[in-house]
From TrEMBL:
InterPro entries: Tscrpt_reg_PadR_C, Tscrpt_reg_PadR_N, WH-like_DNA-bd_sf, WH_DNA-bd_sf. The lineage of its organism: Bacteria, Bacillati, Actinomycetota, Actinomycetes, Propionibacteriales. Residues 7-76 form the Transcription regulator PadR N-terminal domain. It comes from Nocardioides conyzicola. Residues 91-170 form the Transcription regulator PadR C-terminal domain. Gene3D superfamilies: 6.10.140.190, Winged helix-like DNA-binding domain superfamily/Winged helix DNA-binding domain. This is Helix-turn-helix transcriptional regulator. It comes from the Bacteria. Pfam families: PadR, Vir_act_alpha_C.
Length: 196
């Protein structure tokens, strides 16, 4: 996520100080990606250093307000018109966990998949419930939050489909290599016998 470009996009609407930017960002994204206010001010300092924003004085309460520059407007325009790069996939902890689970002896991969599917189904229900609530609002921020929820719903649905696929692949692999399954059963029985 580019905090830099997101803050610049918010500043295009008018000068703001750090807490206002943080609040606006979280309101529009439904606090899906919470921002630390220290991160906001650090980013504003870098944007000022790079000539993308300038200090615009202080408001009546003494907050330092920032205003976007023409260079900053150009940066936002470039951001909005440039596709997000997918050249390097983000690290997916679940994919990494399953890849290791199928290769580390003694891991009950079926249980790992079941537990994740259950958690994903719960998340999907939560997102769907939130989406219904967001659809009731008529503010532009409600539409923004609703789009973020759509993304979360689609991602979670895809994850559940992928888990179903993984489970199916595991079953096929066990059918194709029953000796592996037999070895696992014998090893498990030997462990149980040793523990008696």
């Amino acid at each position: 996520m580019s905090v830099k470009q997101a803050l610049l996009a918010l500043l295009e609407e008018g000068p703001r100080y750090g807490y206002q930017l943080r609040a606006q960002f979280e309101q529009r994204t439904g606090a899906t990606w919470p921002l630390n206010v220290g991160q906001v001010y650090t980013t504003l300092t870098r944007l000022e250093r790079d000539g993308l924003v300038v200090g615009a004085g202080a408001d009546d309460e003494g907050h330092v307000v920032y205003r976007i520059t023409e260079a900053g407007r150009g940066e936002v325009a470039t951001w909005f018109t440039t596709p997000v790069s997918r050249t390097q996939p983000p690290r997916d902890e679940l994919a990494i966990k399953l890849a290791l689970a199928v290769t580390v002896p003694g891991v009950d991969v079926g249980l790992v998949i079941q537990q994740q599917r259950s958690a994903s189904m719960t998340a999907l229900q939560d997102y769907t419930r939130l989406k219904r609530r967001a659809a009731e609002g008529a503010q532009p921020e409600d539409l923004a939050w609703s789009l973020v929820l759509d993304s979360l719903v689609f991602s979670t649905e895809a994850e559940i489909r992928w888990l179903d696929h993984c489970e199916s692949r595991l079953r096929r692999a066990q059918l194709e290599r029953p000796e592996v399954l037999l070895d696992e059963i014998l090893a498990e029985e030997a462990d149980q016998e040793a523990n008696r």
